[in-house]
Amino acid sequence: MEKDILHRAYDPEQFRQQGHQLVDRLADYLAQMQSEPHLAVLPWQSPEDKLHSWQADFSNSPQLSINQFFDRVLMESMHIHHPRYVGHQVAAPAPVAALAGLLSGFLNNGMAVYEMGPASSAIERMVMKQVASKVDYDDSAGGIMTSGGTLANLTALLTARQIKTKNKAWEEGVNKQLAIMVSEEAHYCVDRAVKIMGWGEAGIIRIPVDQMYRMRTDLLQSYLIQAKQEGKQVIAIVASACSTSTGSYDDLAETAHFCQQHNLWLHVDGAHGAAVAFSSKYRSLVKGISQADSITLDFHKMLMTSALTTGLLFKDESHSFATFAQQASYLLSKEKTDWYNSGKRTIECTKRMMSIQVYALLRTYGWQLWDDNVTQLYDLAARFAAMIQQRNTLDLALSPQANIVCFRYAPSRISASQLNVLNVQIRQQILEEGKFYIVQTRLKEEVFLRVALMNPFTTEAMLNDLLDDITQKGKELQREI
Ligand SMILES: Cc1ncc(COP(=O)(O)O)c(C=O)c1O
Questions:
Q1: Please, which pLDDT band fits residue 169 given cuts at 50, 70 and 90?
Q2: Angle at which helices 368-389 and 355-365 cross, to 10°
């Protein structure tokens, strides 16, 4: 007798078979990416064509088996494990972390309260304490995990607001103009966090950057004085470690000193670059980080987990219990130190069991894994920058501090606007051809090509090939401008 639909949906034997097939397929795919990969990094199709092809799949009452479907998704996705993927800052997840992600997806422990994730709550506590000690925080530090750097930054600023307004903002609403100071190069989610909190454009004070795109700490004093004269209460500074566009590290020690002098909260947006704390060679880039009140760190960027896996660390962990001074009596206990009820301190109620991805990596490979990965990527970026400088038609925007390199095709005798058009066209051709994946950014209104080296198997030979490709395309396109 054929099983009913619900029993079929939960059939253990079918799961076993499909799961084995999928893992075999992914292992083959990974091997293919690591040998000479002939696949395009991104099999480009326009959004409309892509939508139509999937609509056709659905309206023909899907003909493909589930494994054929998985295979099709695989082949039509961005191949992040491809060593010629050098685009946005997303990790190629290490397989053991991806397996932990599957476990989280399957177990679906919602984490808001201890009993809805006993193992993953304890692991989260342990991992956050360990990571806190790696940024030289002491025993009073700790943290939570949350769904992405964007949410972590918002959460940190909500905590700062509570602490610096003594909970008044939460209870009474915001009845005076609060503000933060942040580099004009900060990630757009900081601006968004300020707007979400209802402080408007006046709530974000953008500090200009120096030649290396680092926040000018010499200007903090005058901007603070001016903000006070305008009747604003500045409560925090957000420092970028590092910035998204250029990978520039703000001077954390200097900013921390300023914050201490003026009783400001210091939040470090280290979504991308706080991971450098694990690199014995490069950790001086975050000198002073242990003086920050809070730090955002994405594991799904340089630390080899899949998204979203973010840590939000607090120098004084008790502050994180103040973030949401709310009592949902059916859910949240009144105790202030119940680290195990994670929903009390996060925007999410239900969240994924993200800590198990992080711990799966740590317990398998130890801290050395992250040291090697970050160090290798930063070393490669420095070599890539040197390769760019050797070519006279290429212009390096700045010497990279991190694994992010901005440059452009810049032949002589061409106007600024033509240069922008040319580089946009080069990047579009690269995108559509799929041999590499790179992105672009605007620096002071000028378009630059942007490479983030995320994969430890990207080689100098591949990068040389990329530069040949860009130069060739640039020459051809220039004739048409
Ligand atoms: C500096 C910085 N902050 C925040 C974010 C946002 O992080 P997420 O994508 O995890 O929300 C990014 C993403 O690139 C980033 O580079």
A1: confident
A2: 90
